Amino acid sequence: YSLMDIMERFDLHPEELLMIDDMKLGCMMAKSLGVPIAFAFWSKADFPELTQEMRSICDFTFDSPADLEQFLFEEDNK
Question: What is the value of pTM for the model shown?
Answer without folding.
Answer: 0.77
